[in-house]
Structures are given as C-alpha cells and as structure tokens.
Amino acid sequence: MTKTFNLDQIKKAMKNIDVIKIIEEGFIAYSQGKVVVPPVGEMIFEEPPGETHIKYGFIKNDDYYVIKIASGFYGNYKLDLPSNYGLMLLFSQKTGFLSCILFDEGWLTAVRTAAAGAVAARYLAPKNIRRIGIFGAVEQGRLQLGYLKEIVDCRDVIAWGVNQEELDVYKKDMEVQGFNIQTTLEADDITLSCNFIVTATPSKKPLVRSELMLKGTHITAMGSDTPAKQELESDILQKADIVVADSLSQCKLRGEIFKALEAGAIKAEKPVELGNVIMNKELQRGSDDQITVADLTGVAVQDYQISKAVYEELGYYL
Amino acid sequence: MTKTFNLDQIKKAMKNIDVIKIIEEGFIAYSQGKVVVPPVGEMIFEEPPGETHIKYGFIKNDDYYVIKIASGFYGNYKLDLPSNYGLMLLFSQKTGFLSCILFDEGWLTAVRTAAAGAVAARYLAPKNIRRIGIFGAVEQGRLQLGYLKEIVDCRDVIAWGVNQEELDVYKKDMEVQGFNIQTTLEADDITLSCNFIVTATPSKKPLVRSELMLKGTHITAMGSDTPAKQELESDILQKADIVVADSLSQCKLRGEIFKALEAGAIKAEKPVELGNVIMNKELQRGSDDQITVADLTGVAVQDYQISKAVYEELGYYL
Predict the structure, then answer these.
(1) Residue in A80, A93, A104 to test binding to B, most B beta-carbons within 10 Å
(2) Interface test mutation site (partner A, options B5, B51, B59, B69, max chain A beta carbons within 10 A)
C-alpha cells in the first residue's frame, strides 16, 4: 500500500532531522556531479494568476527519485486559502514504484529553501553582522530567521513588508524567538542599515538599490525563481566580489543571475556554485569588506534530500 | 481532504466513459491551440534500466490541470512486478490545490494510448482491412484490439511477440473477445500479410520493413516515445501519402517522425497533426491505395481528458 503522510506527521518527523546538514550535503553532491536534475517543469496560469513548478531528480545510485510539485496562486487570499501549495512524491529508483507521498502543503519547500539560506550564510556572511535585513515578512521571512539563528549571532533585525499589519504580526512572532525586530515599509531602510540581507519576495522589480549598499554586505536572494522575477539591481551582481548560484545551469535560466546576464552586467564565468563554495575555502568570503550574493532558485536535490530524510524518519513510526 | 482513488474504483468509473470520444475531443482542442502542453519531463536510470516520464498540461480556461507520472523499469520482472507503473494527479486551475490522485498503476495511460489508436484508425484505416497486424502481444496489444473493435469490422489478426508463451496467452485472451488470432515470431509475417498494422513495442530497431509493405497499408506506431526508440524504417514515412503526428512539436523530438527527420527521410512540413486530421476531410485517407502512418507519442491532453472524466465520474459515487 502506498504510504501517504500529512503535515502533522511531517512536522513531527522534521524535529529529528538536521536539515541544514542534509541540504549542505545535497549541494555538495550536486556540485560533484552526482545528482541528476532535469530542467524545471513549469505551467503559468493567467486568470486567476498562478504558477506551478515541477522539480525532480535523484542522486545517482541512491534509493529514490523525487518529484516535487509546488504552486503559487495569487488570488487564493480571496478564498481564504494560502497562495502556496505543494506536495512531494518519492519513488524507488530500483522499480519506479511510489515509496510515499508527503502532503506537506508546500511546507517542506519553504523549509528546504530556508535551510539553503543558512548554508549560504555559513560560508558567505560577514563575521560582524551589524543588522539583519529581511525582505518579505511572511512564511519564508520567518523560517529564514529561524534557521539563521543556528549560524549567526546577530539578533537585531529590520523587516520590510507590503503592509503594517503583516509587519506587526511578524515582529510579535519573531520577538518570541529572541530577535529584536524593527519594521519598515521603505525598502531603502534595509539597504542603508544592514550588511546581511535576505530577499524572499515574489517581486518583479528590484528592491535592493546598488548605490545604497553598505561595504561588506551579503545578500541571499531567494525570491526570484522564474525568468520574470527580480529582487536585486543587476549592478549589485556586477560589483559583488563573489556571486554564488545554487545551480549554475538553473541560474542561467531564472533568477538574479539570469537577469544580470541578460542585462550584460556580469559574464557567465562569474558565478560559482554553492556546492563548490562549501568544498573550497578560496571561494568563500575572505574578509568583512567583500560584497557577496547568493542567488538561490531552489534545486531538486534539496527536495530529494528533505523528502528522503522525512520518509526514512517516518519509517520508524510505522 | 484529498481524494485518492485506486485501480478498482477507476476501472468501475471508466465503464461509463466514452473514452474514444473524449480522446478525440482532446486532440481537436490540442490542434486548435486551446491546450498548454510543456515539454515532457524525463528521467533515465541505468541500473536497473528504467525511465520515468512526466507529462503535464491543461486546457485553457477549464477547471483542472494534470500531472501524469509514468515509468517503465525493465528489470521488474525479476521481482515479479510489472514493468510499467504510473499515477495521475489532478489539480484545480483556480487555486493550484490538489483535486484528486488516481492510483491507476499506469492503466489509464495504457487506455488513453489505445483510444488514440482507435481515433487514428477512424480517419486513416483502409475501408477493406485484409488482416490486422499487432506488434507487441502484451497489455497495449490487447487494449488496441479492444478499442479497434469499435471502429473496424475486421476480426482476423496476426500478432508478433518475443516468445511463444506470451503469444499463446494473447491468442487465448483475444479469441474470447471474438477475434481470430494467428501468432508469429517473425516480424515480416505481419508486414507481408496485413494492411493495418499497430506497433506497440519498446523496440530500438525497426520491426516493419518498408520494401515488404502491402499497398494501402496503415500503420499506427505507438511504441516509440523516446528519442532512442524506433519501430518503423524511416523509409516508410518517406513513402507514406499521409504522416500524422499526435503532437507536431513533440514528434519532432521523439518517436518515428523524429527518427525520419534525423535520417533526412522526410521534411518537417510533411507530418500533419491528428486534431487537424479529425477536423479536415482532405487530410484523411482518400483511397484504399494510400499508405498512411500515425505516429503516437502520447500527449498530456490525453491524460487531461481521461483523468478529468474519471474524476468527474467518481464524483457521483462520493
């Protein structure tokens, strides 16, 4: 019988999983060429506006393959439904038969995305973080801080959002977790005061202005995962000392690096891949003066790692 | 709660569905440009040898979108498992949320494939069929005859297979359904005696030899659905009066038309699309002397039509 698991079961299992560790291992395997990740499948809907991504792949000679379906439908709020939805299907690499379906409602995608941010921070964040800036004060902005806590010491945060109500809730929630939270509706307030910035919005025009950036800033840009989305001025990637892609092949087709290549702001040789950054000290931040950018578009190996870990963890409860 | 349905429920629902009709309507919508079908997603596994296809798409401004996963793992017989496996997921085009999962184990893919063969036969088969030739005496070869029964009168059949045991079982099963079945292990026996041929094998080298073909033969080639597979000598497509693709864009990348284009045997303008054939009498067979070929690689609109029909039919039982 096919095993299906709901969000409560998945969240319980995740408590026993070191997600930053498995995501880091996934990026290493990916940059070592041990992972097969075909191009992302995509469907775009016009009315109501929505999009669905299919990410899939496997680690060669391992036990499973994953197919992850994730959608964002931006009119769902009118129906009192969340915008994002998703599920993960894990299959046997030996027989093609289904191993399990994780009805995570998109939560595992949010978690593996936040964990990738923490991995990037481990190798690229400046030693002395003056203040953390968060663009996007909803789910991903919450999870980002949650996982960053394990990597950086700074607890001073300023969050940008599109309305004050959202920001007030964010402030309240994150202060419970031990952060000191300021909020703003002005994007420049972040750029002018933070040397560690995370962008996690579906914006189609840049939020971070190059000319306002502080020396030594690190930016993790994770909102842009389609050819249309963009959170950073391309000039930022030009001026950066280190530009990191979670997947070089994927970032050439979508995200900030795609935008910067399209604009002629950087050359194709500039970005380095996160798995290689983890493995090579020379590719990591060398001083608190450097500007670094990590462009995270989300790679199927993250979905592989997290769904495999959850399935094997859940196996113990059966 | 997510609705999941098993094979028994699905088979029961299918009894009330006119599958040839809905598949024909799907091809019409597709050729009218009303359907979005992104490129097929594919994973290839080496040891044990296997492949997984992801087909997905939707009819614009309709209710759902479908994601269909189908695999073939050719070492499964050693584990007493069938080679083919699959499931279909239907989602709301309004919210992105899952509508249902059909755990059909690949059966709906087999059925919609066979129904496409019947649609092709309706518009391309010669009036007087001397004998029906079937390459591949397993599941698809059974279903093909089952649906052809609704379209053609001929009941004389010769089936080719890779071993006599398989052929004996096929003969027994299909004679119960009212056919007169001969069997052979020699491919040429089919080509030399049949003017209606269906190829439904995973062969990587041609089974039908051009020089042996009878005048006025129709061939429905449905086995080849990857760039590596081929059941017909490319010369057959050159000599054919009418070459039909289920999807022009897809057949340029996989299947017999891909092979013939690659070999320079036909020009890209030669193939016409099945939906257009259905709509235009001039594109259909005009006499019993013509040679016609339908290259069916399997299009997501078929998966859309069948999963939607099953879901809506099952809705009545809830």
Answers:
(1) A93
(2) B69
| CATH H superfamily, domain B3-108+301-313 | ornithine cyclodeaminase, domain 1 (3.30.1780.10)
Structure tokens at B175: 């004679």
Question: What Å distances lie between residue B311 and B19, B169, B303, B306, CA to CA?
Answer: 13, 33, 12, 9
Question: What is the average per-residue pLDDT within A282-295?
Answer: 97
Tokens (6 digits) for A29? 């395997």
Kindly report, residue by residue over A171-220, the tens digit of the pLDDT.
Answer: 999 999 999 999 999 999 999 999 999 999 988 899 999 999 999 999 99
CB contact under 8 A, B103 and A2: yes
One CATH from 3.30.420.40, 3.50.50.60, 3.40.50.720, 3.20.20.150 for A120-298 = 3.40.50.720
Q: Where in chain A is the domain with CATH 3.30.1780.10?
A: 3-108+301-313
Mapped onto helix, strand or coil, the DSSP state of residue A241 is: coil
- Give the count of beta carbons closer than 10 Å to the beta carbon of residue B61: 10
Question: Is residue B94 flagged as an active site residue?
Answer: no
What the block records as the tokens of B219 is 């061939």
Cite the residue boundaries of each domain of chain B with CATH code 3.40.50.720.
120-298
Query: What is the Cα–Cα distance from A70 to A86, expressed in whole angstroms?
Result: 4
